[in-house]
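User: Can you write out an input/output pair for a complex, sequences first and structure second?

Assistant: Here is one pair. Inputs:
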Amino acid sequence: GQNIDQPTEMTATEGAIVQINCTYQTSGFNGLFWYQQHAGEAPTFLSYNVLDGLEEKGRFSSFLSRSKGYSYLLLKELQMKDSASYLCAVMDSNYQLIWGAGTKLIIKP
Amino acid sequence: GAVVSQHPSWVICKSGTSVKIECRSLDFQATTMFWYRQFPKQSLMLMATSNEGSKATYEQGVEKDKFLINHASLTLSTLTVTSAHPEDSSFYICSARTGQGFYEQYFGPGTRLTVT
């Protein structure tokens, strides 16, 4: 079966760095997405990785290792507004998005 | 660019009635639209995928006669929840894909449905 695993909840301090991991097992791979979702709102796109390596976009970076079925989202200089759920999703061979359950990130002052 | 709107943003209806939710791509043509449901503290659950002009493909366990999806044009898809019951209360989110680029899905703001 297809499976996406990510931690349920993480806590970090304002100004610090946090890494949210995601491991996956899917039928085929056409890229991995990270989305941010604030409570009561729809997800917003953060990043897309299809090749191995690190993609940096401002305070956020995303890493992919296809051989290990592993990705992480790195958030630097954490701000209170970064408190949200972070969803990992993999596009399978049918171009269907398989979603993880999301990681709730709590930022403390 | 790539804005998706949903209407209404929230709706309260009585048990047994039907509710229609609209999803529009405002500045692009959406070859494919997706409907998701999300219960509190849970991840997105794909309900169905629809392509313009053809019947929607429903995920296993989703009743197609209860959740009617119409993708009438390249910019509009509708989800009708028929004979709604309290257990249908949820956050319904649509997303749209252009069919170009890396297949990113653009999400609408969601519709909060409460059935009393």
